[in-house]
Amino acid sequence: MAATEQKPRIFSGIQPTGRKTLGNYSGGFRQYAQTQETGDGFFCIVDLHSLSVEYDPAELRRSTLDLAALLFATGLDAERSTVFCQSHVTAHAEAAWLLSAVTSYGQLGRMTQFKEKAAAHEFVSAALFTYPVLMAGDILLYQTDFVPVGDDQRQHLELARDVAQRFNHRYGETFRVPEAIIPEIGGRIMDLQEPADKMSTTLSSEQGAVYIADPPDVIRKKFKTAVTDSEREIRYAPREKPGVSNLLEIMSVATGESIKALEQRFVGAGYGDLKDAVGESVVELLSPIRERFEALRADERELQRLLSVGAEKARRASEPTLDLMYDRMGFATSEAGRFFGAARPRGL
Ligand code: TYM
Hints:
Tyrosyl-Transfer RNA Synthetase, two-stranded parallel ribbon
């Protein structure tokens, strides 16, 4: 017990629907596997989030299992980390309702992702609007210290921190206030065709986004046609040279080399050389992942078994905090001893 208590608690979530991109790898999967080495990791397939925009119910089950396979293929270890599905742990839906009492309507309306997605869809669901509350609950239920995410989740993390602080202030100390971990390089992978925009499953064009499932030739071609600029110099300057800088960041993510080392390597080289090299490095990065993914996804029963082991661990870990929330908010217990029935939340 004492040994796990000392490790920082890590939590992150990722949506099962939509094709996973190189951006998801860089801000998501890559960081999950890294942070698992140092902390007690909880990684959640946020299937409840997927309903916030139109989706196909017939595909949700398969995409949930596929995402589980991809999480394991990119390095999560089911023994060391808790990998689970949000809908399997009802505390998440309950926490979202309770926390909506301490979330400001105005702040939700200022969420960039809400505004972007609302503009892109004809039907704007209430779920799309309240989604950051569900996300805050995901994180806070586990008394999380660190949340590894990409830069696009920064604002949602700020909101989760505000919600935790407001709850603590109003009802008494209940939650740890989490911190985001956003990589300096690769925290925001940009669209290859529109380097001013984020690489995105929903908003990028087919040529602008690289998908983890893309075959090697498709990947090479996407990099060959990537947008750069009219200069010739290969240097890292995100504002002046967004396309070239994005390529350098991608190569740094794929090979682990620093941006400086890459700039030196490409002194005197042309943009064509850079694009070919980046494409090749991404092919090398993704090919073994794709192979592991194909092998893992074939065994549905094993994936289901692993997810149910994860769900059990997640239920046990989140229950004390949910109990404490109800208690602090003044609810009458329905069963004697419900509150603190299991254990006190971690760290309290
Ligand atoms: P989602 O599913 O859209 O994305 C999963 C992760 O991928 C990162 N990401 C990127 N990183 C770098 N460059 C990009 N172009 C790029 N595109 C996506 C995202 O930042 C994210 O880390 N709301 C979240 C899921 C969520 C969550 C949570 C995350 C739900 N509950 C609790 C953390 C903690 C989302 O929709 O991520």
